[in-house]
Amino acid sequence: MPGSSGRAAIVTGAGRGLGRAMALGLAQAGIRVVATAARERAEIEAMATEADEGMVLPVLADVTREADAQRVVMTVVERFGRLDILVNNAGRGMKYVSETFMTESTRFWDVQPETWRMVIDTNVNGPFLMARAAIPHMVPAGWGRIVNVSISHSTMRRPGFSPYGPSKAALESETIIWAQDLRGTGVTVNALLPGGATLTGMIPDAFPQHARGTLLDPAIMVPPLLWLVSDETDAISGCRVTANQWDDDNPFAAVEGASGESERTDRPVF
After folding, report:
1. Interior angle at CA 75, CA 71 and CA 79, nearest 5
2. What's the mean per-residue pLDDT of the chain?
3. What pTM, to 2 d.p., does this model score?
4. Coil, strand, or helix at residue 80?
5. Helix, strand or coil for residue 132?
6. Which entry of 80, 96, 164, 246 is annotated as an active-site residue?
């Protein structure tokens, strides 16, 4: 990818699924990657061996812990001398509420408070802590990319999808607000989503085998991600990009709100 040589990225939740595909895609494009996982060191280490030597550094870290977020950022800066890209992919889904969430709805009042807190902490607070740690290194450089991994609007509103749906709606709000806060700095913030159910660890074991062929391949995220972290998207911020609508010849076909930098909404409306 032109201009990518020498750049460095962080991909959280990179041991499997979307994160694994995106970390390998960035590495293949010549971008060095620090790949994190909260618990499964073996997964990120195995993934790192699939990339060219030295392109992926696996780090065990929990994005819900401020100290871990700071440590991951310092690791990439000390190892590679810079931080250009942050992909906030680490997340917890509905399988933590119920293994049968695909076929049986769980009413919000039946969700255990500790489960609610765990999902919100990972999906909303984790990206905040990672971005907060990364920005002091991106803004002085005058260039940076933050990509928040989101979901379809229909999933945010689907009955029985608390707290996963609300957590991703909050993440999209963070995306738009952060894009405005960073206006004029050279750092952009965008949301990237597959556009449908994807074959990742968030799919429960109970999901029928015969239906797994209908799920999207996690690698669908790589082409739009590489575009979002390129120099071509300097004016694209506060937008959402849907991967299954990607067109190599017309990238904007997959973009919502792509009229340039995000519209300012800093005047309070009550």
Report:
1. 170
2. 89
3. 0.89
4. helix
5. helix
6. 164
Residue 108, CA distances (Å) to 88, 101, 158, 207, 241 in order: 26, 12, 12, 22, 29
Q: Are 23 and 34 in contact (CB under 8 A)?
A: no
Residues 6+ apart with CB under 8 A from 106: 94, 97, 98, 160, 162
Q: Which phi and psi angles does 193 have, rounded to 5°?
A: -135, 150
The answer to whether 192 touches 147, Cβ cutoff 8 Å, is yes
pLDDT for the residue 263:
47
CB neighbour list of residue 20: distance below 8 Å, 6 or more residues apart: 14, 43, 47, 218
Architecture of the structural domain at 8-256: 3-Layer(aba) Sandwich (3.40)
pLDDT digit string (tens) for 207-262? 555 454 567 789 999 999 999 999 999 999 999 999 999 999 999 999 997 544 44
Please tell me the predicted confidence (pLDDT) of residue 99. 79
Q: Could you identify the residue written with the tokens 């909260």?
A: 38
**Does residue 68 register a pLDDT over 80?**
yes
Q: 68 Cβ partners below 8 Å, 6+ apart? A: 61, 62
- 170-181 confidence digits (pLDDT tens): 999 999 999 999
Please tell me the distance from the alpha carbon of residue 131 to that of residue 128, in angstroms, as a whole number: 5
pLDDT score of 79 more than 50? yes
Map tokens 């074991």 to a residue.
205
Cα separations (Å) of 7 from 2, 76, 97? Answer: 11, 11, 38
Q: Is 164 a catalytic site residue?
A: yes
Query: What distance lies between CA 15 and its chain's CA centroid?
Result: 13
Question: Residue 30: CB partners within 8 Å, gap ≥ 6?
Answer: 1, 4, 5, 7
What separation in angstroms does the CA of 14 have from each of 17, 44, 143, 234, 237?
A: 8, 6, 23, 25, 24
